[in-house]
Amino acid sequence: MPSRSKTVRFAHENTIYYPSPAPLAFASSISTATPPTRTYSLPVPRASQKHHVAHIHHQSHATISVPHRYFAPSSISWDLRDRPSTITRYQHHLSSHALNEPATSPPTDFLRIIIPSAPWSIKVYPTTHGAYVRVSDVLDAIYTAFRTNVRSSEFAQLSSRDQSSTSAAYQERYRRLRASPQHYDEEKRAGMKRVDFLMGQTRFVQLVASTRHPDQWTLVIS
User: Where does the DUF6699 domain start and stop, copy by copy (predicted)?
Assistant: First the structure.
């Protein structure tokens, strides 16, 4: 019978756990490294065009990217504690065709996702060299980021109240699997994850494009 201990664990290795059938083949697209410097040239615009220059992949500051329709408010149903293959839209799983569509209009080769309640961001790159960021790249990057282990030093920076809420979120996450003792124990031993820093607000709502930074979005959760 699973233990009811409330001990918070901090694992030394990041683990991505798939509790049921094999997940969709999403390739990891998150990177903590600084994105490579991008060099390119644009023709000098005429006076009437100074505010209308944009590149197909490297958008100018005058261009605001439009998120894919799946990232609009309540367009998909997703608990961020679960892998992307569990996402549904109108009670149907997402098609491979839609997952391969550009994540933005116009397409881009880099995105940064900001989480207002977190001290870190998510960097998204294409999984295919020279291609644009796809819908699946965004979903996979978000999931992988939230499966990153929390360091004890990060936990220590929280207030006492937030530590209690984060610990409760961690316990709730692995206790969901108590029907399978093996999966329950594996998830518990894997330790606290960044998704627990959301303190129970794990429902994906939408991605909002920044009006000041064309490559930056904000993740809205509930």
Answer: 76-209
- What is the per-residue pLDDT for 30? 36
Tell me the two tokens of residue 14: 């990041």
- In sequence order, the 6+-apart residues with CB closer than 8 A to the CB of 25 are none
Secondary structure (DSSP) of 142-199: HHHHHTSBPPHHHHHTS-HHHHHHHHHHHHHHHHTTTTSHHHHHHHHHT--BGGGGGT
Assessment of whether the complete model's pTM goes beyond 0.85 = no
Side chain identity, residue 198:
L
Helix (H, G, I), strand (E, B) or coil at 47: helix
Q: For each successive 10 residues of the chain (222 residues), what is the average pLDDT? A: 57 53 37 41 42 40 80 97 97 96 95 92 91 97 98 95 97 96 96 97 96 92 96
Q: Is 102 exposed, middle or buried (0-12, 13-18, 19+ CB in 10 A)?
A: middle
Report whether 53 contacts 62 (CB < 8 A).
yes
Task: Give 87's contacts (C-beta < 8 A, 6+ positions apart).
Answer: 76, 77, 78, 93, 94, 139
For the chain, the helix, strand and coil percentages under 3-state DSSP, each to the nearest 5 = 25, 15, 55
